Amino acid sequence: MNRPERIIFATGNKDKLREIREILAGFDIPVLSLKDAGIHTDIAENGSTFEENALIKTRSVWEISGGLVLSDDSGLEIAALNKEPGVLSARYMGEDTSYHVKNNELIRRLEGVPNEKRTARFVCAVAAKFPDGEERVVRGVMEGIIGYEEKGENGFGYDPIFILPKYGKTTAELPPEIKNEESHRGKALRLMRKEIEDYIK
After folding, report:
1. DSSP 82
2. Which residues neighbour 73 within 8 Å (Cβ) at sequence distance 6 or greater?
3. Structural domains of the chain, with CATH
4. Burial of 171 per CB tally in 10 Å (0-12, 13-18, 19+)
C-alpha cells in the first residue's frame, strides 16, 4: 500500500491533539487537526457507543478529505452511576459547562459511596478510514476509581478526579509519559498504530 502523506485526526481539541502527537511521535507521518487541514464541518455524534461515534466522525471527514482519517470517541463510565456520563461525557451538563463544574457534580452524586464502589473506567474508541475506504476500529480502557476532590494540573476533562490505584494519584497528577502509557487513548492509539503499520507495509 502507498504510505499516506498525512493523517487527519478529526478533532479541534488542542489538549487531545498534543496527546495524540506525543503517542504517534516517530511515525514519520504528520498528524493534522481539522483546522490544520482546513476542514470546517459540524458532525452530529448521535451513536449509542463510542465505536459508533468514532466511525461517524471518521466517515464524515473522509468524505471531505479522502486519504487517511482517524477520530476517537472517549468518555468516562462510573459503575455506581449506571455508567454515566458514558458517550455523553463531553456533553454532560451541557457542552459549554466547565469540567470543574462537571467534576464536582459527579463527586457530589457519589457522596457517601465508599471507595470499593467508586470504580470507573475511561474508554476510548479510535476509528480509521484508509484511502481505499477500508475501516478499522480499536478500543482502549483504563480502570480506576473516582476521587473525592479535584487534584492535579497535567490533565484535562475528567482527569483531576480519576485516580489510578497503581499510582495513588489522579491522571492529572501524573507526568505525560506515564499518563500516555496508561491511558485509554494511549492504549487505543498504540493499537491503531499497529493497524496503520499493517495497512501500509
Report:
1. T
2. 45, 47, 50, 51, 52, 53, 54, 57, 87, 124, 125
3. 7-200 (3.90.950.10)
4. buried
Rounded to whole angstroms, how far apart are CA atoms 129 and 197?
A: 14
Give, for 121, the enclosing helix (H) or strand (E): strand 119-129
Q: Which of 28, 36, 72, 73 is catalytic?
A: 73
Q: Are 192 and 136 in contact (CB under 8 A)?
A: yes
User: Which grid cell is 170?
Assistant: 489522579
How far is residue 192's CA from residue 138's CA, in Å, rounded to a whole number?
Answer: 6
Q: Note if 73 is an active site residue.
A: yes
* Tally of residues, the chain: 201
Nearest-angstrom CA–CA distance, 9 and 68: 9
What digits encode the pLDDT tens for the residues 146-171? Answer: 999 999 998 889 999 999 999 999 99
**125 φ, ψ to 5°?**
-105, 130
Phi, psi of 84 (to 5 degrees): -75, 155
Q: Whole-model pTM above 0.70? A: yes
Which residues lie closer than 8 Å to 117 by C-beta, 6 or more apart? 79, 80
Per-residue confidence (pLDDT) for residue 45, from 0 to 100: 83
